[in-house]
Amino acid sequence: MIMKKIIFTFIAFAALALSLNASAATCINLTANLSQGSTGPDVTSLQAYLFSEGYLLAMPNGYFGPATFAAVKKLQAANGISATGTVGPATRALIKSKSCAVVPVTPAQPTQLTTPTQTPSSLVSSKAPIIVSLPSGGENLSYGDTYTVKWSGPTNVVYNVVLDDVNGTPQGFLIPGTYANQYTWQVGVVRSGSDDIVVPPGNYRIHVMSASDGAQTTDRVSGVFTISASIHADQVIPRTVVADGKSAAVVFGSGFNSTSQVNLDFYGLIGANYVSDDGKVLVFTIPNTAAPGQRNFTISNTYGSASTMVNSNSLVVNVVRQ
Hints:
Blueprint: H1 2-25, H2 41-52, H3 66-78, H4 89-99, E1 131-134, E2 140-142, E3 146-152, E4 159-165, E5 170-178, E6 182-186, E7 189-192, E8 195-198, E9 202-210, E10 225-228, E11 232-237, E12 240-242, E13 248-254, E14 261-264, E15 268-271, E16 274-275, E17 281-285, E18 293-303, E19 305-311, E20 315-320
Parallel strand pairs: 2-10, 12-20
Antiparallel strand pairs: 1-3, 3-6, 4-5, 4-9, 7-8, 9-10, 11-13, 13-17, 14-15, 14-18, 16-17, 18-19, 18-20
């Protein structure tokens, strides 16, 4: 009996120690006041706390922008602090007190264990794992396509559907907050903060998690799939265009979008005047400073940042002066 009591006491003490260590790991002690425009590790810690508490839907990125400002105001209003959106001493103290608080753990009772190696039932999750079934892996998806993402999991749960890169770094939400078990996605478009952005071509996974509990080790993400860019210019009408900034050249093809620009030989990038919703028609004009002659041009789409640019094949247009 003495040996059993020693074993049970050790197990209870170990559980309490693990709980204390987990609380310390999430303790957030901001070292400076923060406001819109602030950057750095403190901003990332602040955003992680706001995200975990449900005030912020955007993924932490280390930049204090409008979404973080709005989330701070919600936190302040909910806790009786003047809702300024600026993280001052009172808000820093609030976050520290809440995130660093140690929650007491009741030691497991000896009667709950039949052998020293049995796991207490209170430590076993009753929730079903969240499993993404589609994409299953290996798919090649193109911008502008629609694709139905599917997953399974516990009922009566609000899900966040997130696009991760292959290293597990979140890129943005497909949808923040849904009770459904599937979502029809416009490939490549995710929500980051209050904006919709287009991610660069590359390999990705989809991670579905509980909006209230966050990511869990039991979550099963999708297989790796590829997002590819396909831009093609088939025809330009008319073939001869006056360089006056008014005469239109119409390009027929596929894969054009709101970022499309014309890269004109010996001139540079020209913004599109119009792109059709289906991405098959683009209209541009040639500035009067462009040199006359037979000029090759391509259509360029930008994804994520200016460093990720995809070009179409080349067409020829005859540039003339009035």
